[in-house]
Amino acid sequence: MSLSTCSSTYVLGIDLGTTSVKVVLLDSMSGSVTDSNCLPTGADRGSHVVNGKEQDPCKIIAALNQCVTSLPRQKLQKVVGIGVSGQMHGIVFWRANTGCEWFVTNSVCMFKPRDTSQLITWQDGRCSSEFLSSLPQPNSHLSLATGFGCATIFWLLKHRPEFLSQFNVAGTIHDYVVSMLCASKGCSISIQNAASWGYFNTVTRMWNLDILREAGFPVHLLPEPVESGKCAGHTCSEWHGVPANTPVGVALGDFQCSVYSSMTNRTDAVLNISTSAQLTFAMPAGFTPSCVPHALSPIAYFPYFNGSYLAVAASLNGGNVMATFVGMLTSWMNELGVEISESSVYPQLIQAAQGQPDTDLRIVPTLLGERHATSSLGQLSNVSPGNLSLGHVTRALCRGIMENLASMMPAHKLLEAGVERVVASGSALARNEVLRQEVEKSFSLPVVYGKDVDSAVGVALVCSDHLSTEWS
């Protein structure tokens, strides 16, 4: 073993995504990823609520423990900082002091959830347009939507107040992990994640407490806002070999972290297509969003770091559209007596579409609507006997995903902002050559595909960049 390897220290980056958990070890000197692992959570569970979308925190944390256990223990023992990111907007509740149970198995110390609720995710649709319109107007530049933490609390307050009485702390799923690692009695939340809940003013860095109190909102459940990139605390125990008293950053938004890992120049636009899809570019220094949300605007301004903002077209429809299509085909074939797995269908669809470079079939793939157009649903048009093959349909679906995103943030907006290239990433793009082809057709700018462009790497880089200056 070389001397440099012996003396190396590492940063552990964790991303708790909608469908998977990813962990990386980043060499704190070189900034390069030395080890990584990613596992599906399988955490989706049925909801008793109409249009509810919930996940089991036990399965998410089990996947996290399995991922971290797979990393080299001798490197985990040299971790000097932990960064955590995850799916924004969602909310999980727990009881202070009993939110988890620490245990040792095979000489490895870890925790599992104890007195927690299910995670109500960003995909949750329980808050109808009528319900949202009945809520007080936020003092925020960001519109409120179903799946946002504060909207979910309002819904529970009206329909299941007894549920809320069981818990005294709330946060995103990644806030929960940070709180458990640090044995925090309460919960800290970054400006990024607080903004994603609604009723948060990113200029004053404060919750809309007066508005919420007047509406009878249980404000004691709101986490304490902390600047994005700051330290939230220190590990209360050894964890998978990571030493006790290791600094842990306040949990960050997965979107902002994916951008951090890939936006090497301020003239870059970043495209990410995973479960959902986002296209973003950096706003000029000193930009401040308007005080009033533009509910019908497809472009929102997300807080980034150090008071800066990202202009974001955030579509609810990305890789999940392809997943729905694959699931539909698999279900149909099973009904016809043909047993086939989704994993074997997907590559055959891509192959068929590669042999069909163009199509006149048109698909609007907004199966989940959009936050700025909640009543918008998917559409199929220009159907003819000659364009119903798998190749035509898959090509049209991939094109529709990109056309929808490009309609939210047209190419001329990128050019006006001085964007010089598009840096593309995301799990859906990584596995879908046809979608990559449609990305390249959608922009009059060069498209490059980043290496290690993901949230786990991004949050590790944020942690590494702040360790020496602010966390010491």
**Computed structural class:** alpha+beta
Strand runs, count: 26
Strand order of the largest sheet: 21-22-20-19-25-26
Q: How far from one another are the termini?
A: 29 Å
User: Which outline best applies?
Assistant: globular
Overall residue-averaged pLDDT value: 93
Largest beta-sheet characterization: 6 strands, mixed
Low-confidence region ranges: none
In terms of DSSP E residues, the strand content is 15-25%
| Radius of gyration using CA atoms only | 22 Å
Description:
The chain is of the alpha+beta class and 472 residues long. 33% of the residues lie in helices and 24% in strands. It contains 17 helices and 26 strands. Strands 21-22-20-19-25-26 form a 6-stranded mixed β-sheet, sandwiched between helices. The protein has a 5-stranded mixed β-sheet with strand order 3-2-1-6-18, with helices on both faces. The radius of gyration is 22 Å and the shape is globular. The model has no long low-confidence stretch (mean pLDDT 93).
Question: Keywords, please?
Answer:
472 residues, alpha+beta, six-stranded mixed sheet, five-stranded mixed sheet, 26 strands, globular
Question: What is the structure about, briefly put?
Answer:
The chain is of the alpha+beta class and 472 residues long.
Q: How do the strands and helices of this protein lay out in sequence?
A:
Layout: H1 3-7, E1 10-16, E2 20-27, E3 33-40, E4 44-45, E5 54-55, H2 57-69, H3 73-76, E6 79-86, E7 92-94, E8 100-105, E9 108-113, E10 119-120, H4 129-133, H5 149-159, H6 161-164, E11 169-171, H7 173-182, E12 188-190, H8 191-197, E13 200-201, E14 206-207, H9 209-214, E15 224-226, E16 231-234, E17 247-249, E18 252-253, H10 254-260, E19 268-273, E20 277-282, E21 299-303, E22 309-315, H11 319-335, H12 342-354, E23 362-364, E24 379-381, H13 390-408, H14 411-416, E25 421-425, H15 427-430, H16 433-442, E26 447-449, H17 455-471
Parallel strand pairs: 1-6, 6-18, 12-15, 19-25, 25-26
Antiparallel strand pairs: 1-2, 2-3, 4-5, 5-10, 7-11, 8-9, 13-14, 16-17, 19-20, 20-22, 21-22, 23-24
